[in-house]
What does this fold into?
Amino acid sequence: MLLRAAPWLVIGLLLAPVALGVGLTLLPAFGYLPVLGGDAFSLTPWRELLAMPGLGRSVLLSLLSGVLTPLLALAIVLMFLAGSSGTALERWLRRLVAPLLAVPHAAAAFGLAFLIAPAGLLSRLVSPTLTGWERPPDLLIVNDPWGLAMMLALIIKEVPFLLLMALAALPQCEPGPRVTLARSLGYRPAVAWLLCVLPALYPLLRLPVYAVIAYASATVDVAMILGPTLPATLSVSVLQLFSDPDLSLRFQAAAGAVLQLAVTALAMLLWRLLEVLAALAGRHWLAAGQRARGEAALRLVGRLGVALLLALAVGSLLALLLNSVAGFWRFPDALPGNWTLQTWSRALPEVLAPLGNTLLLGGAATLIAVTLCLAVLEAEGRQGKRLAPALWLLYLPLLVPQIAFLFGLIVATEFLRWTPDARLVLFAHLLFVLPYVFLSLSEAWRHLDPRWTQLATTLGASPWRRFWHIRLPLLLGPCLSAAAVGLAVSVGQYLATQLPGAGRVPTLTTEAVALAAGGNRGIIAVWALLQAALPMLGFALALLVPRLLWRHRLGMRSTA
Amino acid sequence: MLKRVTGLLLLALLATASRAQTPDPTDWDAVLAEARGQTVYFHAWAGDPQINAFIAWAGERLQAQHGVSLQHVKIGDTAESVARILAERMAGNSDRGSVDLLWVNGENFAALKANDLLYGPFAEALPNFPLVQADRFPEMREDFTIPVDGYESPWTRSRLVFYFDPDLLPEPPLSMAELLVWSQANPGLFTYPRPPDFLGSTFLKQALLELAAERDVLYQSVDPTQFDAVTAPLWAFLDALHPTLLRGGRSFPGNGGELRRMLGDGEIALAFSFSPAEASAGILAGELPPTVRSFVPRGGSIGNVSFLAIPFNAPARAGALVAANYLLSPEAQARAYSPEVMGSTTVLSMEALTPADRARFEAIDPGPATLPPQALGQPLREPHPSWMEALEQAWLARYGVR
It folds into this structure.
């Protein structure tokens, strides 16, 4: 009974706060907030918002980022899979992808900034020998007006995410037989993959792609570190309005948050249009029967793209590492003039409390999320039908920009007289951890070969016994990867930690953001690495545990 | 009926009155007794690990001396905490606030005070308050021209100080006019943080104080009809300066820390800070070359005092009072003065201290790039906070879209 209610319980748990938060943002956006003297509905907040200098550009920037980032990231992932699916390269990369996914967005953004800035690692490596630069070049690379650096960082982060999601969904598309069939008709392998496997794969990738659109169009942390500044992206501008001491700006801020919601929705609509166009073009290609074209280019671009992003990601981590142990490091020296562990040794005593909080929050949120997701999936399996349409609601917290509902949600908790504390923070984390865990787990769970369960049933096993002794052990690997994703999501939360906890629940991320305000590169690097270390450990465990557990069972290892 | 209404009104009055009076800061023993065992959530900017370490140390001392637990809530921007207090007020939360003590001044204090969001007056009843000699130093009772009225307790002095890299800039410019001439001859060696960053806005105010035809209007609330005329010299100056800045004035650093990093990397030759000890601290931390030195413009530079305030709904008011008083003690102020600790300039008046306490300060070497107090000269007073808001708006309107 309880199990049957699980899906609706979880949907309610996620839907209610988002709906409440958006509602409490909509009211002040249209002038209604009695405590601040807004007694009647009006359009004044919108007029003031639209009068803000540079608003049009901010909107355009957010829209561009929301469409271009997923487009490029998806293109690289698909071209790579088309050219390398089933090869050793793919298997090797699959192992590398997880740690990259583990690096929180803010940490990756700082790493990239330290790598590509005019005084960054790359520029130092080639100076002065190749460039003749004795001083950092006066180039607008980071914080460029069109957000290219920001989009690059987002692509570096989203490619591993989409790749992991695609690899998880791929087996059920049966790429082997499809490609073989197409090849027997004379298509080259990469083109065959694109024409025959992609149409089956894309529907399974759609949700992760929409989550990327939402994130890229409304990111706050990456945009603050690498994004344009004059003007900033819409989300950053809105956040500044929300934290202004001038109370009257709250109306304008709320209107901005609603506008952000609309911009994200518009980005998704544009994407939908692109989907239709791509499907038409694909059908045209199929009908034309053109076989030779594109094979080499596909392979090359996919591999080059992934290689380049990998190099940038590794370079970013290296830049963080170097900065964390650098003493005075004058440009154009490629390496620090002197090395020091002082930044680390000073940070370590400060790490314990936030590390403990991060672990507790991440562990609890992940445990709850995995349990609830398993309950939903098990309920779905036993009822024998997919709740797909309703389960879209599960992803709402990922699709609605954080700033469009978190502030409203905080006002709601204040009205409910809920004291800001760790429990509230845990709940806020769950809003984001749960959908990601579900996203990572559901496809693998739904497509477990049903014959295992059928066999157990014929042997008289009860439903719970089938769950504990058949399905869970068989799917231990995917469960642990989903848990690692959940932990990484929890570790990376800033607004969802600071707002519901009133700053009283310091985590590695809140600490890192507060210290970043001081601008010391060494300190930023140390905290970014600390932030990245925990999720990396999580992913390492997710890979190791099944291997240890099933070390005497060869067949189980291959599924894990 | 009427009786009941008056009764209710009276009750409400009594309730507010008793809230304002508990604890009574003039009865210090009672404050100490009430504070013991309380946990004080201290919201303070945490961008500098030295400051964080100092607050942690002060927490240990407070626990040992008074049984008060001081929890540093690390924030990147004080406005976030102000916004939080406002949200609590909106929701009718009048006794369970999340902030007990707040490091604040200027615009944020003005917003808090204007909206009745502070507890007090308390500052002048603190046992250590006489040590600042407020009668001799009127800046202890005035925050960006807003009268403090005892609603915040002095904590540290800030002073706008420029610092430079002598390798790239042998003769630092001592006025805004000289700065412009130098920057035009050597483009790309200077920039300033992007307003509304407070250091960037301070640069605008410093320039306006130097360039305005008369300063008196800056110490009153902005008169919108006069704003354009008063600020015209500032915009003329910036219009000329911006094309000569780093990145051609198309992008600005986000804050003072980024500005320091740029000087350390040799991207710029001249930077500035609100802490006279910043250059020395930067050298010690290996962020700046050891040759960096500081100076103050010929006509003086903006100085202000930052304060500690207690929100109206702070649950641990007694503990907050004890913490504010401790942070004003010679022991805490002398420790904060040391460049290895915080390098902050004390608000205490040396004349008011006992010889032993004075010796604590005299024993400290302020560092190679820190100017001695006499070289700082008299600070220029901060303009009225409405100027900050108006200047930021006007800056964004002019330069906000590149």
In short: Residues 2-21 of chain B form the longest helix (20 residues). The CA atoms of residues 163 and 271 of chain B lie 5 Å apart. The longest strand of chain B covers residues 152-159.
